[in-house]
Amino acid sequence: xxxxxxxxxxxxxxxxxxxxxxxxxxxxxxxxxxxxxxxxxxxxxxxxxxxxxxxxxxxxxxxxxxxxxxxxxxxxxxxxxxxxxxxxxxxxxxxxxxxxxxxxxxxxxxxxx
Amino acid sequence: xxxxxxxxxxxxxxxxxxxxxxxxxxxxxxxxxxxxxxxxxxxxxxxxxxxxxxxxxxxxxxxxxxxxxxxxxxxxxxxxxxxxxxxxxxxxxxxxxxxxxxxxxxxxxxxxxxx
Lengths: 113, 115
Hints:
The structure holds two protein chains of two kinds. Helices cover 0% and strands 58% of the residues of chain A. Chain A is mainly β. In chain A, the strands form two sheets. In chain A, strands 2, 4, 5, 9, 10 and 11 form a six-stranded mixed β-sheet that branches. In chain A, strands 1-3-8-7-6 form a five-stranded antiparallel β-sheet, with no helix packed on it. Chain A is globular, with a radius of gyration of 14 Å. The radius of gyration of chain B is 13 Å and the shape is globular.
């Protein structure tokens, strides 16, 4: 069955370091992969989208990579700040025109001052 | 405000009661999506509207769930005869493009607790 895996354990890092979050998937042929940020009591906020033919995408301090051979996406936040503390969700959309994304359960990031 | 709004933010229902959850999308957004997010999980797709047409309801878990968007703007998700397993956060999202979740904007959600 299709599976999207994000580390359920929280990632704790020191301010200024680079945070790296992982999204692995199995039995899936995604066309698009998205990363969202979700704060407690709020809906997810879209951050970045990367397509299957793209290896890397950047936006300010954010960088996403997409390796369809490894079936993995890495999400990096450089020079992390306490304000970056949140849950980060990855979502995949299947190739073939389906607009329905499948979300991972998210990984909590805690940046300590 | 310019964002997606949902009401109520919190709803407590006794098992067997009917509930109605409202979503006000961003003005002019064609697409509207409902998701269910259980505690500690990611959102799961429920249903999709393009304007007033419900084009996909494949994610609705049972016939107790019903959604409408009669005038192509505000949408209501109704759950009849609520069960404890319906307890979750219900998220609404809107997008300016038909059938696109590439840049969907989520509301804050309604947390439903069924006792």
